[in-house]
Amino acid sequence: MSENYTALYEEHKKLGASFTDFGGWQMPLKYSSELAEHHAVRNAAGLFDLSHMGEVWVTGPQAGAFLDYALVGKLSAIADGKAKYSLICSEDGGIIDDLITYRFGDEKYLVVPNAGNAPTVAAALAERAANFDVTVEDASAATSLVAVQGPKAEAILLKLTDESQHALVTGLKYYAFNEVNVAGHEVILARTGYTGEDGFELFLPNEGASSLWESIAQAGEEFGVVPCGLASRDSLRLEAGMPLYGNELSLERSPFDAGLGPVVALKSKEGDFVGRAALESAKEAGSKRMLVGLKGQGRRAGRGGYPVLKDGNVVGEVTSGQPSPTLGYPVALAYVDVEHAELGTALDVDLRGKAEPFEVVALPFYKRQK
Q1: CATH code for 288-370?
Q2: pLDDT tens digits, 342-353
């Protein structure tokens, strides 16, 4: 796989980041301690480079109708300035990617897919647009995305915005966005985080990314902001019970297996959409295995790929797992046979030959105090 570098790669090198390949991108895994980065986001603020994510613009008179056809949700129903979590599925109902769509108006939407899937999603959208009066433009290579997550995120951004625009920051609801000037940069400011904390994402052209990153880092010093890599991002999203494509979501899984049935607009959309017939059948048939949260009763953590057992028999598989830095015990997401998916069910995870006790618990594992 070819290596891609974000516009902030040199910033990460200066900060001493350890790098890892993620979806074909060289991304910071951590800077010093992934544990310290995790706790910074829970207690103060963390600064993330998410420029490996995709940005695909859909514009034209039929933009809403097209997205209703191309994705499983009813995107035409989003209000201007709001965002919606959705899925793009294959004809047979498998998940190609989960993504967030932002509505700027009747004829203008921004679709944000995951890093490794961005080219696939852009190509699928372009192919599905054939019979619609829309333009699909993949702007991923020219766009940077910076996130500030944590309880101090809003205070940091207020330092960098003119007082006349403060209400655009403080009044921003979850899954909404505004166009704001932050530290001299015109950005799309969204409140659609992936850490379980309050926070913001800032979209802007590549050429302004380094300047914005440094401004946020400086403004955030007094609040304890630290740069954060993918390791802490993964532990944060796991505590928040949020799925990761390639772990919990894949072409082999239907949205119903993953607990994302409400995302599929089978009732509220009258027309056809890609995967509709297969998804109707999948819903009717029911899932054999479903995604659950597991809480460890001991100290050892399950990891992705480890078998889940009931009375010594394999009844599932862990998709993500590690010790929870915030809660102090191991947590995991796993697909288990539906008959063992009830809350409170005692299960074991096979940790390299040793059965370790876990219990099925409600998601998310961690929920922030408002």
Answers
A1: 2.40.30.110
A2: 999 999 999 999
